[in-house]
Amino acid sequence: GQVTLTDLKLRREACYALGLPFSIKAGYIEHVELSIPWNKLGSEPVVLTMDGVYLVAGPLDEGAAQEDEAAAGEWAWSRKRGRLQRLWQAAQLKAAALQAEGSEAAGEGGGDGKPQRDTLNLLTKIIYNLQLSFKHIHVRYEDRTHSSSPFAIGITLDSLQAATQRSDGTRDVDV
Predict the structure, then answer these.
(1) pLDDT digits 0-9 by tens, 136-149
(2) Contact between residue 55 and residue 34 where contact means Cβ atoms under 8 Å apart
(3) Environment class of residue 110 by beta-carbon count within 10 Å: exposed (0-12), middle (13-18) or buried (19+)?
């Protein structure tokens, strides 16, 4: 399981789905790579690497008045949809955990709760073994509406990595 994508253009709505009050003016990702070790999913890491992230963003209300209303409506809808999706997922996980606890309390060692518990354990192992790597990140924020003169701020990161590690400072799983 390895997926490689190149030259991805970021859509204007990408920030809306996260509930962020920004609009993307321009942006693309040069290279995305996702590695999923299907045969060793619980013991080997799932690795996500992004290289060459270039983003220019601005406030949601910048632009023509009609575009502002459409963008604001789309942002609000995406934010509500995201919130409902998170609530739905939390309710499903809580129901699965309660069902697993109920089956253990009733003494059903091999009942219906075991597959759900195994799935939750595997999901937990995958999340703990997730490794993220971002290289060559360029983000710029421009705002022309909230002051008398244009304002811009940016950040450039050469590398940013996130991985779980043991208490002695070594990674849980070597890549």
Answers:
(1) 999 999 988 777 78
(2) no
(3) exposed
